[in-house]
Amino acid sequence: MSIIVETSKIEKVSRFISHEEENVYIEIPFFVPAGIEQIKVKMDVTKEGATSSIIDLGIKDPNRVRGWSGGARTEFFIHLAKATPGYLHGELPEGEWAVILGAYKVAKKGCTVNLTIEYAKEEFRWLKGDLHTHSVHSDGKFTLREKADIAERDGLDFVALTDHNTSSQNEAYPRDVNTLFIPGMELTTNWGHLNFFGVSDPVRDFRVNNMEDLHAQLEEGRKRGAYISLNHPYCRNTGWRLEWDFDYDWVEVWNGPWREDNQAALDWWQEQLVSGKRLVAVGGSDTHRPDPYVVHGMPTTWVYSKSLTSAEILKAIDRGHVVLSYSPQGPFIDLTCGTSMAGDICEDTKHPVLLNVKNTEFSDVVKVISNHGIELEVLVEEGQDTLDLSLPAEERFFYRVEVWRYFPQVKSRLLAALSNPIYFRNALS
Question: pTM for the whole thing?
Answer without folding.
Answer: 0.92
